[in-house]
Amino acid sequence: MDYIPWTERYRPATLDAVAGQKDILESLKSFIKQTNMPHLLFTGPAGVGKTSCAIALAKDLFRENIGASFLELNASDERGIDIIRGKIKDFARSVSLAEVPFKIIFLDEADSLTPDAQHALRRTMELFSSVTRFIMSCNYSSKIIEPLQSRCSVFRFSPLKYDDIMATVSRIAASEKLQIDENAIKALFYVSEGDMRKIINTLQGVAMISSHVTEEAVHKVTSRARPDEIRKMLEHALQGKFTDAKAQLLELMLQYGMSGEDVIVQIHRAIPELDIPDKEKVRVLELVGEYNFRLVEGANERIQLDAFLAQLSNMLAK
């Protein structure tokens, strides 16, 4: 039995197989043609192709010599100054034996590096730039010190679009012999928010239950309610039907196993679709921010969500 996670099984082997990020891929392919590249910083949300692009770039560039020319490190595991002075510096100073005149060190999750490690990395990047290029990826570029950012070409990855996700999902479905409803693909796009890794993991989870992927199965596996169910709960509250809204909330939390923060996040996404004036949407958003803070601070989620719905129910009466 094959236990390889689908996220690894379907990791792009070349840049041509990476979904979305068209402009970034064109730049990376030009580096391969020129057999030259600057230090790179990939930044953006999770699951949009940063790691895949770095590894695919190295495979396209080094081909069979990738083992001796490419070092991948996860900075969240090896984040201190010792790793910069030891493993990274030793690999960076060695000369490439491949046709490509430089090696690549890939630091995944570089925003986890300590400030001391980032400062130590500055000098290493300068000293060995003739034989080694660095690629760093991170979710938050603000956590990378400015001197490192100025030494890199920065590529900002965006969440994947619906067409990119649909093409990848269809390819995986054909390979795994899955039947996927169109509404299920829309549900995958909704729950993933452009995160391809989350989509592939969700598909694998649903496939363990049934080869027929439905909208309902997607929401159950991800513990996310349907957008129309969240909107219905909010509409009940805004119409003053507090009892109906509270019953809908209870049903959602029991049916999908949602936490209070999960509910608040989906409420936040549903607000722009509400049929109320913009001024009222602003007031609802202010409430969402207030109650999200209370939940993060550890308040009882059922009490707080009930209080949120109660305030909504009184809002239009004021």
The main sheet comes to:
5 strands, parallel
Top-tier CATH class of the largest domain: Alpha Beta
Q: Give the ordered list of helices and strands.
A: HHEHHEHEHEHEHEHHEHHHHHH
Going across the major beta sheet, what is the strand order?
2-3-4-1-5
Helix content bin? 55-70%
Oligomer: single chain
- The number of distinct helices, counting runs of at least 4 residues, comes to 16
Write down the Rg.
24 Å
The residue ranges in which pLDDT falls below 50 over 5 or more consecutive positions are none
Supply the CATH superfamily name of the largest domain. Answer: P-loop containing nucleotide triphosphate hydrolases
Written account of the structure:
This protein has 318 residues and is of the alpha/beta class. It folds into three domains: 6-156, P-loop containing nucleotide triphosphate hydrolases (Rossmann fold, 3-Layer(aba) Sandwich), CATH 3.40.50.300; 162-222, Helicase, Ruva Protein, domain 3, CATH 1.10.8.60; 227-315, Zinc Finger, Delta Prime, domain 3 (Up-down Bundle). The protein contains 16 helices and seven strands. Strands 2-3-4-1-5 form a five-stranded parallel sheet. Strands 6-7 form a two-stranded parallel ribbon. Helix 9 (182-192) runs parallel beside helix 11 (215-222), helix 13 packs antiparallel against helix 16 and helix 15 (278-296) packs antiparallel against helix 16 (301-315). The chain starts with 5 loop residues before the first helix and ends with a helix.
